[in-house]
Amino acid sequence: MPVLRISRSSLLSFCAIVLLSPLLSANPAWSQAASRAAMRETMKIADQPGRVSTKEVVITSGPYRRQLVYFRTNHKPGTLIVHTSERFLYLVLPNRRALRYGIGVGREGFQWSGMVRVTRKSEWPDWTPPPEMIKRQPYLPRFMAGGPGNPMGSRALYLGRTVYRIHGTNQPETIGHAISSGCFRLANGDVIDLYSRVPVGTRVIVRHAPAP
Amino acid sequence: MRTSGLIAAATALLLGGCFGPVADTPQPRATAYTAATGSVASLVGKWGVASYRKEEDLKRTEAMARAHCRQPYEIKKGPTDGVMMHVADDSKLYELTTKAGPKGKTYLGFNAPPGHDQDREFISHSNEKFRLKFVNPDIHTRYGIYIYVRCPGQA
Fold first, then answer.
1. Domains of chain A: residue spans and CATH
2. At B33, is the pLDDT very low, low, confident or very high (cuts 50, 70, 90)?
3. What is the ipTM of this complex?
4. With an 8 Å Cβ cutoff, is B47 touching chain A?
């Protein structure tokens, strides 16, 4: 069973509470450095609003399928730990276990690290295309209420007061990859599972460096 | 004699203009389908655009459409009797027109039979807002119903 060890120094550096505000997106200078190697391997796929991926889609094979793993950490059970370079999200469980989910990481997901809390949850969340997407695809609505064709997928966990979130996707083939937009995405069926396990107030820790 | 010759020449020119096309003037296309009265002109302008699927989302979607007048969708008059708009999944502008279909329905689309696969049906229509539903069920599932709300500051 895979083992992940977190050194005390790494733990201390990522335990620093970083209260991110919406200003972060307007102040690139505040962005944390991300793994350059992880960012270079960006899957060349744009959002596909309107494409339907059913809520039943779950990654069932390969390294990015949801599975129980051996996981050593000082964080309490119930904590979410996101490893962007590995494309995994861990839900810490008792007895040195974690439920591990495969994720896709968007550009925004590489731009910060630290700790926030889940402040809100939403089923079939709404989606607002970014202005640059509207320029490329002017036929898009400027706001899309939640539903099967929505790129946010079946569920969303909103992080702090930031623009970042953990959400589903209508492109399950992007799981395990770095992608051009979005934050942290799971296949719709997997994010529904995570959603059911994670209450508002859950601590979320984001780190970019690979496990030692 | 000279005057009558001039009058005859002028008359010939006028009659020629009546019976033949003048170069470089866009010709109205042959409209095979009855356009809903006044509906095309009322589409011209700047609109806040949003989409929804469930009726319970309509009210807040309309509010979001209004809020997105900061990035409006502009509909301009076309070269003939239609308006320039997009169809699904295509970034190119096309001239579309309104068409009266059976059962009192009105459609927006190409010069093709009302209810064509690429058409959208008017769910509601006023000078201040209108809603369009894709005739193609797959496209409707993917994009939902579009609501257009006229942005303020227009006549």
1. 8-21+36-207 (2.40.440.10)
2. low
3. 0.77
4. no
